[in-house]
Amino acid sequence: MEKFPTIKRKVLRIIKYKGTGRYETIREEDIIKGYAVGYEDMIKTISLLTPKKEVIGPVYREEIVEYPEVAIRELVANCVIHQKLDITGTGPMVEIFDDRIEITNPGIPLVETDRFLDNPPKSRNEKMASFFRRIDICEERGTGFDKIVKATEEYQLPAPKVDKYPEHTKITLYAQIPYSKMDKQEKLRACYLHACLKYVNGDYLTNSSLRERLGIEERNNAIVSRIIKGAIEKNLIKAFEQDTAPRHMKYIPYWV
User: Fold this and answer.
1) Which residues touch 246 (CB under 8 Å, ≥6 apart)?
2) 181: pLDDT strictly greater than 70
3) CA 167, CA 116: separation in Å to the nearest integer?
């Protein structure tokens, strides 16, 4: 891509930092191949630079990646497909910290950030999206964010965060932290996205489903009830049927 002046700034930059800030760079890679032929190089480089945790088994020690690969694949594909190519001086970028991965692309989302899970597919670069679908990198079904949320729930990671800037979109994946160290906004975001994921799959958020998603023991279900109450007060979710007994309550996203 560096051979073409109009797109040489659109190569994917992958930066690994020391710690949780941008003060010290450990490594920086530019994937100069085209997006299609260089896609696997992008994923391999990110995987190589991503922090891993060591699990000691009965015989061997095993390194496990902190983040689900399906989430990384979807985010990288979305990053290059949905970027606004006519914004100059900037390109897609992946920044890797000890506690998170930030994936940024030029251009603001075409749909509201809190509706990524339920909106039909809408591509800014239709030809690129169509080609990526034909070579099995993406599906063009509008389910990419569904997969990301589902994967982070299975890994019991904090919910992904979407930030919209005047000319950019950034999605952050967080490393695993115990529930006790999540702040209020992280808990509410996890609750809302859990409700959205349940709803688009024909199900409902319940106290027990959210407790399982957050890894909270059954004896602490009162904690989950407080999170649900907070999400209702913030108009993130609502009761499916108001007159249901408290122990059988089901919840849906606010937009239903």
Assistant:
1) none
2) yes
3) 18
Give the pTM: 0.92
HEC profile of the chain: CCCCCCCHHHCEEEEEECCCCCCCEEEEEEECCCCCCCHHHHHHHHHHHCCEEEEECCCCEEEEECCCHHHHHHHHHHHHHCCCCCCCCCCCEEEECCCEEEEEEECCCCCCHHHCCCCCCCCCCHHHHHHHHHCCCCCCCCCHHHHHHHHHHHCCCCCCEEEECCCEEEEEEECCCCHHHCCHHHHHHHHHHHHHHHHHCCCCECHHHHHHHHCCCHHHHHHHHHHHHHHHHCCCEEECCCCCCHHHCCEEECCC
At 218-249, the pLDDT tens digits run 888 899 999 999 999 999 999 999 888 878 89
Distance CA 154, CA 147 (A): 10
Q: Identify the pLDDT of residue 66.
A: 86
Residues 103/171, Cβ–Cβ less than 8 Å: yes
Return the amino acid letter for 211.
R
Mean pLDDT over the full length of the chain: 91
Domains, in order of start, for the chain: 8-174 (3.30.565.60), 179-253 (1.10.10.10)
Rg of the chain in Å (alpha carbons): 20
pLDDT tens string 37-48: 999 999 999 999
C-alpha closest to that of 193 among 246, 152, 234, 244: 152
